[in-house]
UniProtKB/TrEMBL annotation:
Originating species: Urochloa decumbens
Residues in ABC1 atypical kinase-like domain copies: 74-324
Residues of the Beta-lactamase-related domain: 468-748
Protein's recorded name: ABC1 family protein
Highest classification ranks of the organism: Eukaryota, Viridiplantae, Streptophyta, Embryophyta, Tracheophyta
Biased segments, Polar residues type: 774-794
Keywords assigned by UniProt, alphabetized: Coiled coil
Entry-linked PANTHER family: ABC1 FAMILY PROTEIN
Domain of life, source organism: Eukaryota
Gene3D superfamilies registered for this protein in UniProt: DD-peptidase/beta-lactamase superfamily
Positions of the UniProt region annotated as Disordered: 737-795, 906-929
Ranges of Basic residues composition bias in the record: 762-773
Residues spanning the membrane: none
Length: 929
C-alpha cells in the first residue's frame, strides 16, 4: 500500500507541472482524498494498533492535508460495529448474569466504535442512564501482535537510518498500551482523575484546582472487558454544526481542556496519555464544559519527573539554558553533544503557540528551516560530513515518561488545529508548572534545616548569621552564599536557598554564582600579577603592549588609567553592545572593537566608572603582555595557587552547568531606582538604563552562550568560598591562606577545572587536523580558545599536588612588598590614581574611621560582593542570585562585622536603599537619598 501511494503521488507530481494553478489545487485535493481513503480502509481492515495510529494522525491538522483529516477522523469513533451476539456474549460472561437482569433497556446501535471497544447506551434496572463499554473479542491478541510487528519495523528503520531512531517511543508504547486492555484499570484511573480535578474539596478561591472546570462520568461497575459509566449527553468535537448551533466557544473549550491536562501533568503527576478528539464531549447546557472520557492509557509519573517537566516548561518560557539542562538531567535525558541553544530551540517547539490548520503549512516550513539550521550547527560543531551527521544521534538516552508527555502536547496541538483555534500554551500552563515547582518550596513551608545547607557552623557569628538569614526568609533571598576569613582561618561558610526561581535544588558551598562587576576585582588582580612577574608596568602606555590600541587619540593612555577608570573610555562599546547584545560572546571581535574606540575625556582627567569596557581593556592588556590566553593567565595567577579549581571562572566551561545558580530580579527593590540620580563618577547613559538593564540581564545571563563568553568586567562565576579565599590572600599582600575548612563539602579545589562532557561523540579520525578538547567535543585547534574553554593544563593530579604543597608552604602569589599600596593607590602609587577618587588601581577602596585607606574590594550589580580589611586581616564574600539594590548583602556584611567588632566599610554602612553596587555608590551621598 505504501508503494502504491508513493507512486500515485510521484505520478501526480509530474502531471501537475503542465496544468493551470486552479486545476493543480483540485488535482492535489483529489489525490489526497483518494489516498486517505486507501489508508482508512487498510487501517480498518488491520484493526488494533493501526487504528490508534490513524486516530493520532487524524488530530494533526497542523501537519496533514485537510482531506486526510476529514477522512481519518472517522477512526475516532465510527468504525464498523461488532455483531450484537459478540457484544452480548462478552457482557454476560463478564458480569455473570443475563443482560436482561442488568439492563432495563439496551440500545442495539452503538454510540461509537473505536479500536479497542464499542460503546452502547443503556438504562440500568434501577433506572439510571448509563453507557456500556465492551471490549472487542480477540483484540488483546491483535494489539500485542501489532506492537511486536511495530517494534520490528522500528528497529529496522533505526538500523537503516540511525537519525530516525524511534525505539524509545515504541518501547514506551509496548509498556503502556496493554494497560488499555484492562477495564478495571481504566475504571480506577477514571476515579483517580475525577478526584484530582474535582473542586468539591480543598478548592478555595484562587487555588490552582479551581482553575479547572471539566466533567468526568462516574464509574458504576467494571470488569476486565466491560465498563459501565454514568451517561452524559454531549456534543462530539468533530460535529462542527452542533457546536455552532449550541453556541460553543471553541477557543474557551480548548483552553479548558489544556488547563485540565496541565493540572493532570504538573499538579497530579497522573494524566491521560491519549487526548484525541474522540475522547471528549461538550456538555449541551451552558457554560458548555468539556467532558473527559477514556482513561485507559493513563500515565503516572514520579514527583521528581513532575518537577523536571515543570522545570523544562518554565525554563523554555524564561529562555533559561541552565534550568533547561538541569531539567534534562533530572528527566534522564542524556545528550552526546554540547549545544545548549539548539537544545532550547528544540524544547521550545513543544510549547510553541498552536496554529490553525490554515496556518499550519507556514508553521511547518519554519520548523523545517529551524531543523535544517540545527543540523548544520551540529555538523559544524562536530566537524561531521553529511553522511556522518545523518547517522549521528545527539541524544544518548531519552526517558520513557517524556515520550507520553510529548505525545500529549502534540495531540493537544492537533486538537486546537482541528477546531481552528490558537492556544498560547505558555500562558495557560505556566500557573500549574509554577505551582508544582514552587508551591512547597517557599521558606515558610519547608524546614529551616533544608533551606540552609546542612554544614557545621564555624563560629558563633556564623550561627547568628544563619538565624538572620532565616529571619529574612525567601521573600528577600532566593539563593545565597556567605564566606569569611579572619587571620587566615574560615569563620563563616554558609549556603542557603535555591539555585533559581525555577530550579529548587539547594544552594551548596560549591554552587557557582554569576557576580557581574565583582569580576573586575579578579581581572585587576591578574594585571597586578603580571606587573609583579615583570611582564608589565603600571606607567607603561597600552599601545606599547597592544599596538592596535594606539589609534584615535589613545596613544597616551597608560595601564594605570585603565585600572583607575580614568582612561576616558567609560562608554566604549556601550552603543555597539546595546544594538547587538550577543557581541559580548565574541572575545576577539570585542577586543578589535575596543581597540578602535575614541576616548571622551583626557587620560587621567576624570574618574568615570568603566562599567563594561574595563574587562576588555584589561583583558587585551593581559593577553598581549603575557602572550597567553586570558583564561590561562587566570588559572596560573589565581586559580591554581589558591587551590580553588572548579569554583572561579571568567567564562564557564561545559560540564559545570549542574552547579550554576540562575538569576532573577527583586522587582520591588528595582522600583526604588527611579529616585536615584547619577553623580559625576557615573556615566549618565548607564544610570538612565540601569533599571532596564537589571530587568534584562537575567534573561541574557541565564543563557549558556553568554555565561561561556569571556567578559572580564561582568561574567565571573564563582563560589563565595573561592572569592573569600582570593581576598584573604590579597589582604596579606598575596600570602596563600592555609587550606580551606575541612567541614566544607565537597572540599574546595576538589572539582576538575575543565570537566569533560559526559558522553564522548564520534571517534577522532586520523589526519583531520582536529583535536579533542577537554569538553569532549571535536574542535578545530585554531578556534578552540576563541569563545570556549580549551585544555589549559597537563594533569589534574599534578596541579592538585602542586597547589596543596603551595597552600601548606607559606608561599605567595605576589612577591612585592608594596602590592597592597598598589591595590589601593597609596604611597608611591598615589600619583597614578585620581585625587580623592573612590578607586585605587582596579579596586574600590574604603576608609576606616580615622580616614586611613585599609579596605578594598569590588561589588557587582545585583548585590554580590567581595572585599577585605587589611588592617584586621579579614576577608569576606557574599553571593546572591536574586538581584536587588544590595539591602540583603549590606545587612549580612554589617551583622558580621559588628559581631566581630570590626569597622564597616562605608559602602555597607550607609543608610538608605543603595549599594553594594558600583553604579549607585559612585554618586555622592546627597544624590543617593
Amino acid at each position: 500500500m505504501a508503494l502504491l501511494i508513493y507512486f500515485d503521488y510521484k505520478a501526480v507530481q509530474k502531471r501537475v507541472q503542465w496544468v493551470s494553478t486552479t486545476k493543480k489545487s483540485a488535482t492535489w485535493t483529489k489525490t489526497h482524498e483518494r489516498n486517505a481513503r486507501r489508508v482508512l480502509n487498510l487501517m480498518i481492515e488491520l484493526e488494533g494498533l493501526w487504528v490508534k495510529m490513524g486516530q493520532y494522525l487524524s488530530t494533526r491538522a497542523d501537519v496533514l492535508p485537510e482531506p486526510y483529516i476529514n477522512v481519518l477522523k472517522q477512526l475516532q469513533d465510527s468504525l464498523p460495529p461488532r455483531p450484537l451476539e459478540e457484544v452480548r456474549g462478552t457482557i454476560e460472561k463478564e458480569l455473570g448474569k443475563p443482560m436482561s437482569d442488568v439492563f432495563a433497556d439496551f440500545v442495539l446501535d452503538p454510540l461509537a466504535t473505536a479500536s479497542i471497544a464499542q460503546v452502547h447506551r443503556a438504562t440500568l434496572a434501577d433506572g439510571r442512564e448509563v453507557v456500556v463499554k465492551i471490549q472487542h473479542d480477540g483484540i488483546k491478541e491483535i494489539i500485542l501482535e501489532d506492537l511486536k510487528n511495530a517494534k520490528s519495523l522500528i528497529e529496522w528503520i533505526a538500523w537503516a537510518e540511525p537519525q530516525y531512531n524511534f525505539n524509545p517511543m515504541i518501547d514506551e508504547w509496548c509498556k503502556e498500551a496493554p494497560k488499555e486492555l484492562d477495564f478495571n484499570h481504566e475504571a480506577e484511573n477514571t476515579r483517580t482523575v475525577s478526584r484530582n480535578l474535582s473542586c468539591k474539596t480543598d478548592c478555595g478561591s484562587g487555588s490552582i484546582s479551581s482553575a479547572v472546570d471539566v466533567l468526568i462520568p462516574e464509574v458504576i461497575q467494571s470488569t476486565d472487558k466491560v465498563l459501565i459509566l454514568e451517561y452524559m449527553d454531549g456534543i462530539r468535537l468533530n460535529d462542527n454544526d452542533s457546536l455552532e448551533a449550541y453556541g460553543v466557544d471553541k477557543q474557551k473549550l480548548v483552553e479548558e481542556i489544556t488547563r485540565a491536562y496541565a493540572h493532570q501533568i504538573y499538579i497530579d503527576g497522573f494524566f491521560n496519555g491519549d487526548p484525541h478528539p474522540g475522547n471528549f464531549l461538550v456538555s449541551k447546557e451552558p457554560p458548555h464544559k468539556p467532558i473527559l472520557l477514556d482513561f485507559g492509557l493513563t500515565k503516572r509519573i514520579s514527583k521528581s519527573m513532575t518537577q523536571a517537566l515543570a522545570k523544562m516548561f518554565l525554563s523554555c518560557a524564561e529562555g533559561d539554558h541552565v534550568a533547561l539542562l538541569s531539567a534534562f538531567a533530572e528527566m534522564g535525558l542524556k545528550l552526546r553533544v554540547d549545544m545548549p541553544q539548539q537544545a532550547m530551540d528544540i524544547a521550545t517547539v513543544f510549547f510553541r503557540q498552536s496554529t490553525t490548520a490554515s496556518e499550519a503549512k507556514e508553521n511547518l516550513k519554519a520548523l523545517s528551516d529551524q531543523r535544517e539550521r540545527n543540523v548544520k550547527a551540529l555538523q559544524e560543531k562536530m566537524k561531521l560530513n553529511k553522511k556522518e551527521v545523518q547517522k549521528f544521534n545527539p541524544v544518548d538516552a531519552f526517558p520513557g515518561d517524556a515520550i507520553i508527555f510529548m505525545r500529549v502536547l502534540n495531540l493537544l496541538r492537533g486538537l486546537s488545529a482541528s477546531l481552528n483555534v490558537k492556544i498560547v500554551y505558555l500562558d495557560i500552563m505556566r500557573p500549574f508548572a509554577e505551582s508544582t515547582l514552587l508551591g512547597s518550596l517557599t521558606h515558610g513551608q519547608i524546614p529551616n534545616s533544608q533551606w540552609i545547607y546542612d554544614s557545621p557552623a564555624n563560629s558563633d557569628v556564623e550561627s547568628k548569621l544563619r538565624n538572620y538569614l532565616r529571619e529574612l526568609g525567601s521573600d528577600k533571598i532566593l539563593g545565597i552564599q556567605v564566606c569569611a576569613y579572619k587571620d587566615g582561618k574560615v569563620i563563616i561558610d554558609t549556603a542557603a536557598g535555591m539555585l533559581g526561581k525555577y530550579d529548587p535544588r539547594p544552594v551548596q558551598p560549591d554552587s557557582l554564582f554569576p557576580v557581574f562587576s565583582v569580576t573586575k576585582g579578579i581581572t585587576a588582580g591578574m594585571v597586578h600579577w603580571l606587573v609583579n612577574e615583570g611582564k608589565l608596568k603600571y606607567e607603561e602606555t597600552v599601545a606599547n603592549i597592544w599596538p592596535n590600541f594606539g589609534t584615535n587619540t589613545k596613544e597616551l593612555i597608560k595601564v594605570h588609567h585603565l585600572l583607575n577608570h580614568t582612561s576616558g573610555l567609560h562608554n566604549a562599546l556601550g552603543d555597539v553592545v546595546k544594538s547587538d547584545p550577543m557581541l559580548v560572546c565574541d572575545w576577539e571581535e570585542t577586543l578589535n572593537q575596543i581597540a578602535k574606540c575614541t576616548p571622551e575625556t583626557e587620560p587621567g582627567s576624570a574618574q568615570i566608572y568603566h562599567y563594561l569596557s574595563f574587562g576588555w581593556l584589561c583583558g587585551g592588556v593581559i593577553e598581549h603582555a603575557s602572550g597567553k590566553k586570558f583564561q590561562e593567565v587566570l588559572e596560573e595567577a589565581i586559580v591554581r595557587p589558591l587551590h580553588i579549581e572548579g569554583e572561579l571562572y571568567i567564562g564557564i566551561p561545559p560540564g559545570v552547568e549542574s552547579r550554576l545558580a540562575a538569576l532573577t530580579v527583586d522587582t520591588e527593590e528595582l522600583q526604588k531606582l527611579s529616585g536615584i540620580r547619577a553623580g559625576p563618577g557615573v556615566p549618565p547613559e548607564l544610570l538612565s538604563n540601569v533599571a532596564q538593564m537589571a530587568s534584562g540581564v537575567p534573561v541574557l545571563f541565564n543563557t549558556l552562550n553568554v555565561r561561556r563568553a569571556i567578559i572580564p568586567a561582568a561574567n565571573g562565576h564563582c563560589s563565595a568560598r573561592a572569592l573569600a579565599r582570593y581576598y584573604a590572600a590579597l589582604a596579606t599582600g598575596g600570602s596563600i591562606p592555609p587550606p580551606h575548612s575541612a567541614d566544607s563539602k565537597p572540599p574546595l579545589g576538589s572539582h576538575v577545572h575543565t570537566p569533560k562532557f559526559p558522553t564522548a561523540p564520534l571517534k577522532k579520525k586520523k589526519g583531520t587536523g582536529k583535536k579533542k578538547c577537554s569538553t569532549g567535543n571535536l574542535q578545530d585547534a585554531s578556534n578552540s580558545d576563541k569563545n570556549g574553554y580549551s585544555q589549559l593544563r597537563t594533569s589534574d593530579a599534578d596541579d592538585e599536588a602542586a597547589a596543596t604543597a603551595a597552600a601548606g608552604s607559606g608561599s605567595r602569589i605576589f612577591s612585592s612588598d608594596k602590592i597592597l599600596d598598589a591595590f589601593m593607590g597609596v604611597g608611591e602609587y598615589e600619583s597614578m590614581v585620581h585625587p580623592n577618587g573612590k578607586f585605587g588601581l582596579g579596586f574600590r577602596r574604603y576608609s576606616n574611621a580615622s580616614g586611613t585607606l585599609r579596605f578594598f574590594g569590588h561589588s557587582g550589580m545585583g548585590g554580590s560582593t567581595g572585599f577585605c580589611d587589611v588592617e584586621n586581616n579579614f576577608a569576606m564574600a557574599v553571593m546572591v542570585n536574586k538581584m536587588s539594590l544590595g539591602s540583603v548583602t549590606r545587612g549580612v556584611v554589617r551583622l558580621v562585622l559588628e559581631e566581630l567588632g570590626l569597622p564597616v566599610p562605608d559602602e555597607f554602612s550607609t543608610s538608605g536603599e543603595k549599594g553594594p553596587d558600583m553604579v549607585l555608590n559612585l554618586a555622592p551621598p546627597e544624590q543617593q537619598s
